[in-house]
Amino acid sequence: MNQYTHPLYVSPAKDKNRKKYGEGDGNFCICCYLPMKSGETKMVHMNEDWLIVSNDITDENCEVLTGAKSQGCFNIGDSCAKKHPQKFIISY
Predict the structure, then answer these.
(1) Is the pLDDT of residue 9 over 90?
(2) 4, 51, 70, 83: which could join 62 in a potential S-S bond, CB 3.0 to 4.6 Å?
(3) Cα angle at 7 between 50 and 49, to 5 degrees?
(4) pLDDT at 21
(5) What is the pTM of this model?
(6) Among 88, 86, 64, 56, which Cα is nearest to 74's?
(7) What is the tally of structural domains in the chain?
(8) What share of the chain has pLDDT > 70, as a percent?
């Protein structure tokens, strides 16, 4: 890890929720696999080392600055977003 990356919080209920809800259309929180609620508008940008990357990282400079290619962005629920530093949460 470096100043541009942070570990992704993984809820202890993630596996249970994945079994209950399945992967469906992908509209679930990457941390806990609960379905996203109406009005939840946050994401995290992940690299291939499965670390979240800082908001100032782009797909183009991700590998140079973090040591791994970008995987793109994933939904994160509001309660799970609170478990990460704000500079790693994308609000849209």
Answers:
(1) yes
(2) 70
(3) 20
(4) 87
(5) 0.90
(6) 88
(7) 1
(8) 97
